[in-house]
Specification:
CATH superfamily: NADH Oxidase
Number of helices: 8
Strand order of the largest sheet: 1-2-4-3
Radius of gyration: 18 Å
CATH topology: NADH Oxidase
Distance between the termini: 32 Å
Largest sheet: 4 strands, antiparallel
CATH class: Alpha Beta
């Protein structure tokens, strides 16, 4: 697959087939992705690749917590006292409108009506099942590393998603796991100096799932780039 095709075909898939992905394939993807650049070559990324019982145990821990909370229709708010938690974000324009549009486009495909909070809550819960993907990846970073290392991790994650396309696999990066970072931390047995950065579903896309027909819009280059001296 050409790089251009891999980039163009990469999407956040939210329904996967039960077809397994081998450890060898996952290892090959991670090895390729590890060529990502990092400041002074510190390579700050750590990955927990979960399948089978290990994946099921993490899903069970989170879903049990969600059931105890009850169907509220609201996503849990990060607890700022917890080391893995992100501060609450207030979205300004144009980001708020873009965020809302992709949400309603997705819900429209799933026939979830505006105001149907229980349905939204259930759909959000699909994150913690990795959208039925056979492999879940959890990305971890040392908590004492500063922002440049997080940029390095982001480039590594992008490489993972593109290398997956080379294997005819799809992915969905998932910040939703941060809502339950303490449970993820405990279930994976992470150290006190480690921090959850993101999750990612990995597997074969279900071609018949309506949510997988979503094609997100992109801003034109001239709207976000400033060219000088050409």
């Amino acid at each position: 697959m050409k790089l251009e095709d891999a980039i163009a075909s990469r999407r956040s898939v939210r329904a996967f087939l039960p077809k397994p992905v081998s450890r060898e394939t996952v290892s090959r993807i991670l090895e390729t992705a590890s060529r990502a650049p990092s400041g002074t070559n510190i390579q700050p990324w750590k990955v927990h690749a979960l399948a089978g019982e290990a994946r099921a145990a993490l899903t069970k821990a989170i879903m049990t917590a969600r059931e105890a909370e009850g169907v509220t229709g609201n996503n849990p708010k990060p607890d700022p006292k917890k080391p893995d938690a992100e501060p609450a974000r207030r979205w300004a324009e144009p980001y708020l409108s873009r965020r809302r549009k992709v949400g309603w486009d997705l819900y429209g495909l799933l026939e979830i009506e505006k105001g149907d909070k229980p349905a939204m809550w259930r759909q959000h819960g699909r994150n913690y099942e990795f959208f039925d993907a056979p492999v879940g990846l959890m990305f971890v970073i040392d908590s004492d590393l500063e922002k440049p290392a997080w940029l390095d991790l982001g480039m590594f994650m992008q490489n993972v998603m593109l290398a997956a396309r080379e294997e005819d696999l799809d992915t969905c990066p998932q910040g939703a796991w941060l809502h339950y970072a303490d449970l993820v931390h405990e279930t994976l047995g992470l150290g006190a100096g480690e921090r959850i950065a993101s999750g990612m579903a990995l597997g074969y896309a279900d071609p018949d799932a309506p949510e997988n027909t979503l094609v997100t819009e992109r801003v034109e280059v001239d709207d976000f780039a400033n060219f000088s001296g050409f």
